[in-house]
Design goal:
16 helices, Aspartate Aminotransferase, domain 1, 11% strand, alpha/beta, four-stranded antiparallel β-sheet, Aspartate Aminotransferase, domain 2, 478 residues
Amino acid sequence: MKLIFEQSRPGTRCSLLPPCDVPKAGLPVALRKSPPRLPELAEVDLSRHYACLAKEAHGVNDGFYPLGSCTMKYNPRINEEAAALPGFTGLHPLQPIETVQGALEVLCTAEKLLCAITGMDRMTFQPAAGAHGEFTGLLLIKAWHRSRGDSARRKIIIPDAAHGTNPASATMAGYDVVSIPSNEKGCVDLDKLREAVGADTAGLMLTNPNTVGLFDENILEITKIVHDAGGLCYYDGANLNAVMGIARPGDMGFDVVHLNLHKTFSTPHGCGGPGSGPVGCREFLAPFLPGDQAVADGDGFTLERSTASIGQVKAFYGNFLVVVRALAYILTLGREGVPEAAENAVLNANYLMALLKDGYEMAFTEGVMHEFVMTLEGLKKESGVSAMDIAKGLLDHGIHPPTMYFPLIVHEALMVEPTETESRATLDEAAQVFLHLLDQARTDPAALHAAPVTTCVGRLDEVGAARNPRLRYAFPAE
């Protein structure tokens, strides 16, 4: 399809705004030497352009989307209807407190319920996404150590199977990263952890269940080792979907947690948003929470900020409408539905793994939770077909590929997370496709090297795109 600039025709208009009825205020000429080069299209052309883009994208509403560690589940329409209520969409963050009581009640109610689910005492909704939440949580840890005059704690311990954003966030927060290896079971090596902790340990960042889908049976010992060394424990909530309503990070010994409302609590996400990564903490860290906090005040609600706050990490109160969606999701499921969703996520992952394990080699099979990891290292040596080839082949069958080549501790990895929203029939069909591609790898590997062939574009030069990206439209020379 043509780019929107290629469809542009000089003089074409799409006037949707009424005539200006107030005095015009122009910008200083020095700020712009020439008018912006905006595409000129009619409304019908604009509508068709975005309709075509939508047809060329694959989302949860299009088909099976088993992207490991991302929890790409179906998002109920009631969430969207709640977030679209005019009383929410028409708000301005600088309105007087007395005019936004409903929005403040949403924040207070969501904080109460999410704290109950995570075992935390307080929560901020300012962070815009998971990695932003990681960074905010680490700033809370740093502020606490500094408040006690303990500036020698410069190291954050992170397992080698962690999400890549963990070491990046720790580095951005000014910490040195200490990576510890996983044991043969895919979990934290306790001996290596004991060797790593010391007087310079600020904290530990951990996901549980971890990136290979395993719940660490030593989690209480892990958090105790860090606490005994004077550090704090940070919970990456990316995989909370497997244990929500069943096991709480606070009960595991964690002091700080970030959540991905756009994963676990059912907001559409991908390609940059929308997102929300609220951070919960224990009471002793609450004074350091960023920005203003919504609190109950008599018969209403107000905002307050601690004098020890780390300051703003985002404008105003975060991505508010994502919080509305999450609250609608939690209230719809209720006390019984939240753990049931987690149980079904675990059931679906283990069911699909059982259908595939006789053909595909699994990295780990004992105690798998919401996702599982396959290694195609043997298949690649046998047939030359890689994890990338299988992933591309899935596209020809209307299935979005699972996560590829991650975690790094598993070679030729495919990480699959079916989520709780998929039916048994869908999982059966997906298993048939996976097994068909396995047979094809052994009988006709060339076909998989060429895949996909039914999509709007064929196999792309991903290395070339990464190293030489074209991020701007090149206007024809005038």
